[in-house]
Prior knowledge:
The structure holds 2 protein chains of 2 kinds. Chain A has 11 helices and no strands. By secondary structure, chain A is mainly α.
Amino acid sequence: MLVSVNQTWATISGDFLIAALLIYSLALLAFAGDFAFGRPRRAAASRVVNKPVAQLATVGGPAPDSAGTDGVGLDDAGSGPGGPADVVADSLPPLRLSAWQAVSAAGSWVRAAIGFSILGVVAHVIAVVARGLAVHRAPWGNMYEFITALTCIAALFFVYVMIRYRAWTLGVFVMGAIVLALGLAETLIYTAAAPLVPALQSYWLSIHVTAMTLSTGIFFVAAVLGILYLIAQRYRKRVAAGKANAGNGLIARIPSPEQLDKLTYRAVIFGFPIWTFGVIAGAIWADQAWGRYWGWDPVETWAFVTWVLYACYLHARATAGWRGTASHVIQLLGFASLMTNMLVVQVFITGMHSYAGVG
Amino acid sequence: MTDVHVPSDVSAETFPEDAVPGLPRNASPKPEVPQANWGWFRWAWRQLTSMRTALILLFLLALGAIPGSLLPQEGTDPASVQNYFTAHQTLAPWLNHLGLFNVYAAPWFAAIYLLLFASLVGCVVPRTFRLAGTARTPPPRAPRNLSRLPNSSSYRVALPPDQAITVAAAFLGGKRFRLRKPAEGDKSSWISAEKGYLREAGNLLFHLSLLGVLCSIAVGGLFGYKADKLMVEGQSFSDTVTSLDEFHPGRLVSGSDLAPFSITLNKFTANYYTSGDSRGEPSSFDASIDYSPSPGAPAKPYDLRINQPLSVDSAKVYLIGHGYAPVFTVTDARGKVVYDEATPFVPQNTGTLLSDGVVKVAGASPTQLGFMGVFVPSPIDVGGVLQSYFPSANDPVVSLIAYAGNLGMNSGIPQSVYQLDTTAMTQLTAKPFALAIGQSETLPGGQGKITFDGYKQWVSLAVTYDPGQLPALVCAILALAGLLLSFLVRRRRVFVRSVPSGDGAVVTIGGLARTDASGGFEDEFAELVTELRAAHGESAPDIPPGETASRAPGENDTETGA
């Protein structure tokens, strides 16, 4: 039972984490460079979309990835050519190119940013794995490790979303948030590699915290998308009211509210079942360790509040009068409660989950 | 249905029963003029089961749960509630009136979740019937102009139109689509196909399972019990109300329902990390016990650990705490041994296990004796004050203050075994005296002698029985399964029409999925079209496939509008 910490792996983990942070910062710079100096794609994309898409839309052609894409980036019954949601197609490049072609066509800033992002994720994964090897357990036993792991998940998930949906315009925001979170973890709450107290010595720990880390990483991306949605929606209203110029400035470059809404929804319905599973696994673990599966411990309470708020979002999105801005505000409230749980409740409120190892 | 102009209208019209994704309720109840009696009730019920009310109740549930995490709760930490009352003498009674020290059992919290579940029942039950109805109803007729659907494609085949439809019907039937063919006498060639009813079924399963979780919790609260027992190494206890320290039965549980097992604690071992940042943190706890499942049954050994409870006779026994119990021998003024036992001390500091306790010698004569003590597991002298530098016992000492007089144990007021009431006692020694193992202190005035013989360890055990636990787990897993089904399954419709063209026919395929589904229908549709086209090609292999028709509206209209 008395296991010591492998210092070699601990050092490797620390070095790779710093490297990941630096590479993410470079990716962030490149994303910002694309924003500032990249060639404007907006006009070009609109032109492509408004052209007849007859040949490309015809099914049965040789290239499978050209099938069924009708020039709209995302599946949307209401956004065919000439349909009411023509604007949808404005700012994300269409999906008819393969991911590789799209990346090649995206310009050197984007290519550099994607390259750095992937490299950063690789370094990040190595850091997390090395931490696990150093402490002989799943590397999410305290707050520092938890943030390191969840930002790793967020970065992985974002790189996937970015390449799958050509959403590089989101990079500067998501990467910015990841660099911020990781940087704060590294400077404020760094905790040296250490073994666990008996209550945490359970394979349910790995299962419960893995699910929580995964879903938190995914909700993290959803939250950034939600904030962008609110910005894009406000911008659209201002354009409609004549208070802002369409097609100018940074905000015009982020995807349309409809696309952001869809991406957010997909992220949430990906994260929500994992969160649900994590809460169930946590209840099983609580039963093993403390003799009850649910005891309204502060951390349990806030996990419940988070679950209910994301359920609210899913319902609000299906309720007339609550779609759009209101549902996104609810989604962000859910993420706020998740963050409250992680950064306030676990650190400052005494409960049975006081394992943060901070301070 | 056939007169469709914009694709977005199609999806709303062709899926009338779940045009609103997620939980389609009567989203905006129409303001009705309530009629007498039943009218009001119906109106109220409709309000309650509306989606907006459900949303507000969900919000209130989240909001209502929060104070319980910020204020101490009776259920989990009654001592902190007492402290809060002492510290906030004006505020605390008000908070108490609002039930904020027992939020999760408060009537207003129960009102929120019961209303929420009533709303859920009012929504889910009719929907279950509706789903059963839909599952028996065939899909709608194929719209006239399939090229206006979100996904469409057309090509020429070398088959007559009705044969092309027969092939399509066989193909889609093989893919487990539910089919609808034209009625007798309808000469047009088309087929409608629908799939993905499991989405709604999953959604309903999720909500019904949540109801099941609530019922399981209620069953646990009614028929379960929770009990605590502190035992020192070498002691035994059997699971009866009198031998338990605390017993919290469910509403329908009596003492005779207890599981009649017994447990003996042989030895408790705690290990601690000795180096690094975690120095002093525990690495393992291990209580070696013998237990017999029923009276007279042979005893079996078990290693009780944290995360490794003992399941015995449908109850579970958990290791939840530990500490030191110094052993004292006390002789009174007559020279008679009046106390010889291990006395559990309560840890004051979990990091060093510096522990407090009292020894009450009620049998001492002529006056009763009492001692207040501190047990120091690993003593170190810090500026004249004894401190503990490590939680495990390395040459432990006890520091004691002796009292003589009346312990007040016969006053009728219940006393804590961990507190000494010194109001009727006199302090015998001006300063505390420290004893190492084996040392004795003779009390002044010939009052007797106390010897520190050594120490044992104690553990506190929790005994729980919760018959709602397994049902709750099953319901939770079902809820998760339902959630996944409702997120992953896509309800989609595929229509095929075929019109004569030259030697063969032009086949048009249209498809649509609920826009809210997790996406990817384009890929599935493209695959369906490719496979269907291949199936058509196999049926008429000798004629090469005609030129590919496009989905440009003008061209399609001339081909399919006939």
